[in-house]
Amino acid sequence: MCQEYNISRSVIRIVFTRLNKENLIDILPQRGTYVSLFDLDHIRNLEILRTAVEKEIIFQIITTLKDEEIDNIVKKLKENLEKQLEYNECDHYDKEFEKVDYEFHQILYNSLGRESLLSLVSESMLHLVRWRAFNVAFDHRIKELIIEHSIIIEWIAERNIIEAQNAIARHLKTVASMDKRAREQYPEYFKGDK
């Protein structure tokens, strides 16, 4: 890796130590360094946390902002949705789609001046981001994500808190829909036997 990236061994050690502390890699002395397996219990916990935060974001948007501010958010979300539609026929989780998907959620946080909250959530959610990439690729979910985003927009536009919160919860909950199938097809990717 030192030669490939033209950096020193000490930099590699620092990076590997940090990745190991975040449980993204496993370092096995005398055997090697490996990408960590998916821990679905941990990912389920992260899904609950992120869902709670985004449901609260939606609640605050609808209950604290003026109608013209909500209309502006809806306009930005629809513009973002137009960008997403460019990837509608994509059969893999394109990095560019991932950016547009992130931007969709960023619009929600930014509308309340909560940019730092999104950064905080994102930093602690690396396992969820990793899972999301696997999930979308495994089930070819890009079309489904776009539809889910459009439903979220619709309920926000209608100022329907409950339906908007339910839509974001369905959108963010991914483990239950595929964990058994994914474990059967790729058992070597997962920790434990749940």
Description:
The protein is mainly alpha-helical and 194 residues long. It has helices at 2-5, 9-21, 40-64, 67-85, 95-110, 115-124, 126-139, 142-157, 161-172, 175-185, and strands at 25-28, 32-35. Strands 1-2 form a two-stranded antiparallel sheet. The model has no long low-confidence stretch (mean pLDDT 90).
What characteristics describe this protein?
single chain; 2 strands; two-stranded antiparallel sheet; 194 residues; mainly alpha
Task: Put the structure in a nutshell.
Helix content is 72%, strand content 4%. It is built from ten helices and two strands; from the N terminus they run ααββαααααααα.
> Radius of gyration, rounded?
19 Å
Number of helices: 10
Label the structural class: mainly alpha
- The portion of residues assigned to helices is over 70%
What's the rounded overall pLDDT mean?
90
Helices and strands, in order, run as HHEEHHHHHHHH
Q: What is the terminal-to-terminal distance?
A: 35 Å
Characterize the biggest β-sheet. 2 strands, antiparallel
What share of residues are in beta strands? under 5%
Taking pLDDT < 50 over at least 5 consecutive residues as the criterion, the unreliable ranges are none
Biggest sheet, strands in spatial order? 1-2
Find the count of extended strands (DSSP E, 2+ residues): 2
What is the approximate shape? globular
What's the helix and strand layout?
Layout: H1 2-5, H2 9-21, E1 25-28, E2 32-35, H3 40-64, H4 67-85, H5 95-110, H6 115-124, H7 126-139, H8 142-157, H9 161-172, H10 175-185
Antiparallel strand pairs: 1-2
Helix pairs in contact: 3-9, 4-5, 4-8, 8-9
